[in-house]
């Protein structure tokens, strides 16, 4: 099954549907390799490259991740816009989330064995550029490290996302509608805000002894963050959110 990749940097705002499971769309640039079966590449559009995921031969029916890696079954791409317009395959955005179907046995840090903290069956969101895509049992999957998982979706709305490790979930402040002189700004001319309110924080990163280091910010803090960091999402009510590492926070406002 072919996977669509965009050459250059792609920035996508993911749409979350308020249905049982979240519907996540974003552009992603995974590294892909063809193993066992070579499929002819389709003619690419300008700026687009079409490649095949790693195809696992039918005689193999399971894939067991090693160490701190996880296997995620990728959510299907959206076939329609929010207005109901059918999208051709080339226009469908690549999903950035899926269901964990297998986890590794964990890793050794110092003298301590640290298990993978994500459970099989969890709905997760992952980094856009992480992992290796494989086609297993006619479904697209992604093999990636636990640290590439951004957060766990406990409901169908991003506002309830549980960030992992040293990441924080931030509700982005609304952009200014007017200039200081009173001129109205259009959506395209509004300056991208880099201030927001922390909604949730992860448990912290692991130190050299395998212990969690608590984060320096807490839910409710208003922070300034690096303008081009993190992964952006849109909540069910249209509110903008961003998930980034605590190291991308610049300051706390009070």
Describe the structure in your own words.
This protein folds into two domains: 61-83 and 93-153, Roll (10 Kd Chaperonin, Protein Cpn10, Chain O), CATH 2.30.33; 158-253, GroES chaperonin (10 Kd Chaperonin, Protein Cpn10, Chain O, Roll), CATH 2.30.33. It has strands at 2-6, 14-15, 48-52, 54-55, 69-74, 97-103, 107-109, 112-114, 123-126, 132-136, 139-145, 149-152, 162-163, 167-172, 195-201, 205-206, 212-213, 222-225, 231-234, 240-245, 249-253. It has an eight-stranded mixed sheet with strand order 4-10-11-5-6-9-12-13, with no helix packed on it. A seven-stranded mixed sheet has the order 2-19-20-14-15-18-21, with no helix packed on it. A two-stranded antiparallel sheet has the order 1-3. A hairpin with a 5-residue loop joins strand 19 and strand 20. It is built from no helices and 21 strands. It is mostly beta strands and 254 residues long.
In short:
By secondary structure, the protein is an all-beta fold. Helix content is 0%, strand content 36%.
CATH arch. level architecture of the largest domain: Roll
The largest sheet is:
8 strands, mixed
Gap between N and C termini: 51 Å
The fraction of residues assigned to DSSP E strands is 35-45%
Name of the top-level CATH class of the largest domain: Mainly Beta
Across the major sheet, the strand order is 4-10-11-5-6-9-12-13
Number of strands: 21
Count of separate structural domains: 2
Summed up, the helix count is 0
How would you classify the quaternary structure? single chain
GO cellular component, one term: chloroplast
Keywords: Chaperone
Family: Belongs to the GroES chaperonin family.
Pfam family, one: Cpn10
């Amino acid at each position: 099954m072919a996977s669509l990749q965009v050459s250059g940097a792609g920035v996508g705002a993911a749409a979350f549907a308020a249905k049982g499971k979240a519907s996540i769309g974003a552009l992603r640039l995974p590294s892909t390799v063809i193993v066992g079966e070579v499929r002819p590449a389709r003619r690419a559009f300008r700026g687009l490259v079409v490649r095949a995921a790693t195809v696992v031969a039918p005689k193999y029916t399971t894939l067991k991740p090693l160490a701190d890696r996880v296997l995620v079954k990728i959510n299907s791409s959206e076939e329609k816009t929010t207005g109901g317009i059918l999208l051709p395959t080339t226009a469908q955005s690549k999903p950035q989330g899926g269901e964990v179907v297998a986890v590794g046995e964990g890793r050794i840090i110092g003298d301590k064995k640290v298990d993978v903290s994500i459970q099989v069956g969890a709905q997760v969101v992952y980094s856009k550029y992480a992992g290796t895509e494989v086609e297993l049992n006619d479904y697209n999957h992604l093999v990636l490290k636990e640290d590439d998982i951004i957060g766990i979706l406990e409901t169908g709305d991003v506002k309830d996302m549980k960030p992992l490790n040293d990441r924080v979930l931030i509700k982005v402040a609304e952009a200014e509608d007017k200039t200081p002189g009173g001129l109205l700004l259009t959506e395209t001319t509004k300056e991208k805000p880099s201030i927001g309110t922390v909604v949730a924080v992860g448990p912290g990163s692991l130190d050299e002894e395998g212990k969690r280091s608590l984060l320096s910010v807490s839910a409710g803090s208003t922070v300034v963050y690096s303008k081009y960091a993190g992964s952006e999402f849109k909540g069910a009510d249209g509110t903008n959110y961003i998930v980034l590492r605590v190291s991308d926070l610049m300051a706390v406002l009070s």
